[in-house]
Amino acid sequence: MLKLQTVLSLVLSMFAFHIFAQGEKPNNLTMFVGTYTEGGNSKGIYTYRFNQENGTFELLSSATAANPSFLTLSPDGKHLYAVSEYNDGRQGVYSFDLSQDKAHLSYPVFQSTVPKESSEEEPKQAGADPCHIVTDGNYVITANYTGGDISVFPLDAEGKLKAETQHIAFVGKTPKRVAHIHCIIPTPDKKYILATDLGNDRVYRFRYNKKARKNAEVLTAQRVAYEVSDGQGPRHLTFSKDGRFAYLIGELGGECVVLGYHKGKLKEVQRLMADEGGGRGSADIHISPDGRFLYTSHRLKKDGIAIFAIDPKKGTLTKVGYQLTGIHPRNFAITPNGKYLLVACRDDNKIQVFRRDEATGELTDTSLSISVDKPTCVAFAKLN
After folding, report:
1. Per the confidence metrics, is the pTM higher than 0.85?
2. How many whole angstroms separate alpha carbon 377 and alpha carbon 257?
């Protein structure tokens, strides 16, 4: 009887340990940090282990890349894509393979955002300053700020970049306007791609043909989906968890716009001021994993994060707080469990770690920060 009890006890202990280990595993995230390398000491992209339960972190590796200011991961988590933000002919896109433990990046494949048909007299402007990038595993698409255009790159079976196959350029809607494409985002139904044009105060919509045949256009049927108030300068856009609402932050005007979304159409629901400093430098926008709170970052004056509660039925916002941050909070990310919000403070050379109150949405500075030169983007990947 004693031996049977001992065996049962041992089995139960092993089972408990197995459950504990399984429960612990998702707490460890791989965190990728994009940076500016020009005029500083950054090597390019840095990889960290971040524990989303207790906020601890560890540097794992770095990968050499030039001005990888914005990053995105493939849906399967096996590849990382990054822009190379230049406006002198060096602009382009990187693709990296991730090691099995996601601690290291492979030697990159690079493709230029300068289209092949660019004239020799003016090759530098086209595709200049790619600043945002998305992928669905079939294509990589970049928003090119100074170029005022969009670049589309197909991916091969291994997830590596192939040469650009579509380039869409925009012109000013008046002679004094200059197009500045700042963000590319797929709609929740995956049928369309939206692009924000800071220079023209517009959001464009394209039909997304993800199964386009060879040499066929991937983005078609361009139209203006939403006209922003003059001078707002639409920058970044995100969708509610249920896909019924889009939230748009204006860089220059500092307003957050709530837009109803239905079958490719956008309709204004609400507009309210997010920026509290009038710095004309609003930057990023994200929704908490539980869908209850929205956050926007603001730079140049009163650098910080605005906090809004989301009405689950109407999609409307109510401002509940404003958290001061380090200098120039260009980008931020929320851990998948919603416990931490990390802010890339570019001009303070650090990533600031805030604890997030899941009930109120408010942020508390943990006094922890990750030292890295000119951080501009934070992206999380779960460990397998």
Report:
1. yes
2. 23
